[in-house]
């Protein structure tokens, strides 16, 4: 919004600032999206590993109950 205002009111270098901002956005956006994707993937993987550990402990508990005849 500020960049658009600079270009609109005839500030010297305003259109150049808009172009620089757009170029930076185009360069930074893919890197930021990649970082977010990696973060979400790692978070999901750790949640799955935690859930697997819970299920394994539940299986062990149930095996002990079956072996003890309860």
Features of this protein?
70 residues, mainly alpha, 2 helices, 87% helix, rod-shaped
Average predicted confidence as pLDDT: 85
Helical residues, percent: over 70%
Q: Which structural class matches the secondary elements?
A: mainly alpha
Strand content: under 5%
**Largest sheet at a glance?**
none
Number of helices: 2
Radius of gyration: 27 Å
Give the beta-strand count: 0
**What are the segments in which pLDDT stays under 50 over at least 5 consecutive residues?**
none
Query: What series of H and E elements makes up the topology?
Result: HH
Keywords: Coiled coil, Membrane, Transmembrane, Transmembrane helix
Coiled coil: 38-65
Protein name: Preprotein translocase subunit TatA
Transmembrane segments: 17-42
Give an account of the 3D structure.
With 70 residues, the protein is an all-alpha fold. It is 87% helix and 0% strand. It has helices at residues 2-8, 14-67. Helix 1 (2-8) packs antiparallel against helix 2 (14-67). The longest helix is centred in the middle third of the chain and has 54 residues, at 14-67. The chain starts with a helix and ends with a helix. The model has no long low-confidence stretch (mean pLDDT 85). The chain crosses the membrane at residues 17-42. Keywords: Coiled coil, Membrane, Transmembrane, Transmembrane helix. Residues 38-65 form a coiled coil. This is Preprotein translocase subunit TatA.
């Amino acid at each position: 919004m500020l960049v658009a205002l600079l270009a609109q009111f005839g500030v010297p270098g305003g259109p150049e600032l808009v172009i620089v901002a757009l170029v930076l956005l185009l360069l930074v956006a893919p890197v930021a999206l990649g970082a977010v994707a990696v973060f979400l993937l790692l978070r999901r993987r750790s949640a799955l590993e935690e859930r697997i550990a819970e299920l394994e402990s539940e299986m062990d508990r149930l095996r002990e109950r079956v072996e003890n005849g309860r």
